[in-house]
């Protein structure tokens, strides 16, 4: 039986106290319906047309269930681009992780950041895309149906040591674990009207645990004693790097020497980032982007050199490659960007720093 039979309840459900619910839909003339969809999604994503020509009509709908700090969405979507720009990420307090389960139609495409190659696409099965809301991204969606789980960062990091490294990762529903997860979420979406708040929240936590297990297994961080050691080393390296981003002597060699680790073992752990050097560079670029917005009184050169970028032209090229904007441009926009979140919050129906930004 196709999942679509279960996803959008035909009548407003009678829900237990503490379970929040909302519906929203648009259809018809794209000039009006697309603008309405942009407004509805604006607290978290900037929605843009999928093509320059646009479509004559645009149909989309969402159903949301929220329990405390976790939200489950059922999207019926038309073609569009969902964008979280560097400017938004640098000024907002949304730190959650989202998991998009592409159930029907053509699977979406992760366009922002580096395309991951560690999960080859299997067109005939659903795929799950993880996004860190603390990082810029662009996702192209096609006509289809998506379940989306919006999860607080701390809940994920109970089981997966570094939520930031989930950004842009895919897993395919080719294993019993993933098929169990999807069946669990489809059933929860269909049956939540019959659950108490406590039962619904526990079901959401179960889904989160299954997601963390699937992505941990893909990264080689779970499954046996050797995986447990890898997970511990991964966390150790990550914490050391974060604590020393402003140290001019931070290099892969200094990390290995300080933590007494072998180059081969650490490279394998960070292979999905292009190696440890690329990981350090990526984290420094993200920190630079944050400081360019938070500290408009500091010069671009001071911020760059404070993070180990001593060549201005090399820093500018790396920053533009990573974020599609020059550091001086972002720095110049900083006063405007810092005012923009306050404007959005006046009409936002999504959560601030969590799934509440989606609430209507």
Question: What's the helix and strand layout?
Answer:
Elements lengths: L3 H4 L11 E8 L3 H12 L4 E3 L11 E8 L2 E8 L2 E5 L1 H6 L5 E9 L3 E2 L16 E6 L4 E5 L2 E8 L1 H5 L12 E3 L3 H16 L5 H22 L6 H19 L8 H8 L3 H7 L6 H19 L5 H7 L5 H12 L3 H19 L15
Antiparallel strand pairs: 1-3, 2-5, 3-4, 4-10, 5-9, 6-8, 6-10, 7-9, 8-11
Helix content: 40-55%
CATH architecture name of the largest domain: Sandwich
Q: In the CATH scheme, what's the topology name of the largest domain?
A: Jelly Rolls
User: Whole-number average pLDDT?
Assistant: 83
Low-confidence stretches: 113-122, 342-355
Q: Structural class, from secondary structure content?
A: alpha+beta
Let me know the CATH homologous superfamily of the largest domain.
Answer: Jelly Rolls
Calculate Rg over CA atoms: 21 Å
Number of distinct beta strands: 11
CATH class of the largest domain: Mainly Beta
Provide the domain count. Answer: 2
Helices, by number, come to 13
Amount of beta strand: 15-25%
Series of secondary-structure elements, N-terminal to C-terminal = HEHEEEEHEEEEEHEHHHHHHHHH
Q: Widest sheet: strand order? A: 1-3-4-10-6-8-11
Distance between the termini: 31 Å
The biggest sheet, with number of strands, parallel, antiparallel or mixed sense and barrel status, is:
7 strands, antiparallel
């Amino acid at each position: 039986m196709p999942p679509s039979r279960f996803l959008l309840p035909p009548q407003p459900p009678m829900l237990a106290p503490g379970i929040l619910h909302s519906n929203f839909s648009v259809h018809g003339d794209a000039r009006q319906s697309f603008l309405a969809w942009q407004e509805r999604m604006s607290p978290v994503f900037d929605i843009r047309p999928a093509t320059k020509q646009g479509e004559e009509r645009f149909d989309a709908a969402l159903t949301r269930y929220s329990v405390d700090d976790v939200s489950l969405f059922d999207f019926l979507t038309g073609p569009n681009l969902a964008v979280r720009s560097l400017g938004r990420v640098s000024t907002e307090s949304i730190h959650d992780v989202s998991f998009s389960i592409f159930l029907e139609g053509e699977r979406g495409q992760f366009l922002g950041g580096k395309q991951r190659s560690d999960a080859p696409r299997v067109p005939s099965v659903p795929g799950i895309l993880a996004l860190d809301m603390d990082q810029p991204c662009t996702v192209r969606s096609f006509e289809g149906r998506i379940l989306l789980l919006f999860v607080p960062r701390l809940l994920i990091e109970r089981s997966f040591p570094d939520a930031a490294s989930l950004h842009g990762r895919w897993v395919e529903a080719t294993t019993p674990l993933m098929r169990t997860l999807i069946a669990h979420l489809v059933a929860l979406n269909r049956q939540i009207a019959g659950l108490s708040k406590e039962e619904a929240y526990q079901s959401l936590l179960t889904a989160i645990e299954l997601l963390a297990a699937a992505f941990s297994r893909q990264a080689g961080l779970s499954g046996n004693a050797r995986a447990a050691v890898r997970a511990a080393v991964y966390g150790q390296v990550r914490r050391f790097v974060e604590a020393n981003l402003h140290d001019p002597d931070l290099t892969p060699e200094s990390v290995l020497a300080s933590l007494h680790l072998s180059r081969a073992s650490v490279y394998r752990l960070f292979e999905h980032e292009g190696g440890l050097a690329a990981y350090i560079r990526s984290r420094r670029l993200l920190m630079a982007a944050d400081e360019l917005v938070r500290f408009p009184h500091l010069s671009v050169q001071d911020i760059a050199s404070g993070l180990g970028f001593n060549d201005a032209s090399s820093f500018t090229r790396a920053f533009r490659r990573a974020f599609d904007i020059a550091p001086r441009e972002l720095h110049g926009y900083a006063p405007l960007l810092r005012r923009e979140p306050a404007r959005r919050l006046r009409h936002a129906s999504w959560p601030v720093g969590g799934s509440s930004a989606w609430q209507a």
